[in-house]
Amino acid sequence: MTDYAIQYAERLMSPAAAATLIPSGAKVAMALGVAQPPALLKALADRAEAKAVDDINIYYLLSTAIAGETVLRYELTDRLRPHSLFHGAIERKLEARGIEEGRQGVWFVPTGFQQTPKVLTREIGVDTLVATVSPMDADGNFSLGTNTDYALAVSRTAKRVILEVNPHMPRVFGECTVHVSQVTALVEHAAPLLEAGKAAPQPQDLIIGGLIAGLIENGSTLQMGIGALPDAVCEALHDHADLGIHTELLTPGLVELMRAGVVTNAKKSLHPGKTLFTFAMGDRSTYDFLHENPALEARPVDYVNDPAVIARNDKMVSVNATLQIDLFGACCSEYLNGRQYTASGGQLDFVRGASASQGGQSIIACHSTAAKGAVSRIVARLDGPVTTPRNDTQIVVTEHGWVNLRGLTVDQRARALIGLAAPQFREGLHAEARAMGMIPA
């Protein structure tokens, strides 16, 4: 037995035993998305339900059903307090129920994605990491697989690193490994990874996807956000050539472009020949594609999302969706109906990185309306916080066209954005712009 195998055996224990290593008062970083460890989280939830542990704060982005059915159950939030850095459906339900009962159901921590490792390790001082990893290799390393993001940084500073080893987690290359000597406890649990398929596109998505694809030159490097709209852009790019990828999220749409030979990474000025990402979500086919694929590298989010690093890719194109754009060009991409809906994520990181790139383009896209056409997404004033400031917004696209806001005056911006609004809202937006002094009366 090798020294690494001995260390592995010494750290191996049941989920219940591993959960006892997390004391009351701990600050736990839970892995993002697919890497949330089912067996460990269930064991921790069981301890909380038995009132064997209390006063634990859990920090994370992008929860899934894995967490929602265990540590993020509402009845446990008095002992396991969810601290979300990126809301989803689970957090929205926790918040709504908390409001009904007059107490806090979830705590939101505003931060940009690139800053997350620093926020967790320095400002908050998390002391525990729980994550799913691939099986150990011959050198004693576990790959973080689908989720390097903030997990790598936390693994290097936390007092307790508790890992769930899952043979279904792909082994990925790059700066994305945790050595067995850094690990406090190991749990073995074979379970299929959570899958997230592509959302069905609406007609507006297909129109917007075609418009955006028409703006992207061959040889460009891409970042795509999540959802039906970015997927529609990927669908519209299959006639392009020699594209590259530098993205926080690797999606099935981007993987399909690699499989089709549209993405070669040959023209990338940074990490040529490699697709760079910090986390991935997709179907089983996506995870199989990641496994030991030398064409991909996973790196920490404070590198992948660093605007200065992003800008080193010539012809960098970022494509992100938003919920609202005001007539000045500022975007709110995280707030809806007076409540936190998602979070800023890495949108501003890539807006600024792509804008600073030689020949780069930052693209913000949205449907012109919401609520089945009853509400305009182009508005005079935002209903929530600014995710992308007006000074940073470059190209805006709706199903009614696109405009580059750079260099336009306030009145030119207002007129151009009104032109991207649904026709039934344009007259009212003109009136609001005149009342605000943006357009001369």
Automatic annotation (TrEMBL):
Residues 6-190 form the Acetyl-CoA hydrolase/transferase N-terminal domain. The keyword Chaperone does not apply. GO terms for biological process: acetate metabolic process. Residues 282-433 form the Acetyl-CoA hydrolase/transferase C-terminal domain. Pfam families: AcetylCoA_hyd_C (PF13336), AcetylCoA_hydro (PF02550). It is an enzyme of class 2 (transferase). Keywords: Transferase. GO terms for molecular function: acetate CoA-transferase activity. Its EC number is 2.8.3.-. It comes from the Bacteria. Belongs to the acetyl-CoA hydrolase/transferase family. This is Itaconate CoA-transferase. Transmembrane segments: none annotated. The keyword Transferase applies. InterPro entries: AcetylCoA_hyd_C, AcetylCoA_hyd_C_sf, ActCoA_hydro, ActCoA_hydro_N, NagB/RpiA_transferase-like. Gene3D superfamilies: 4-hydroxybutyrate coenzyme like domains, Acetyl-CoA hydrolase/transferase C-terminal domain, Glutaconate Coenzyme A-transferase.
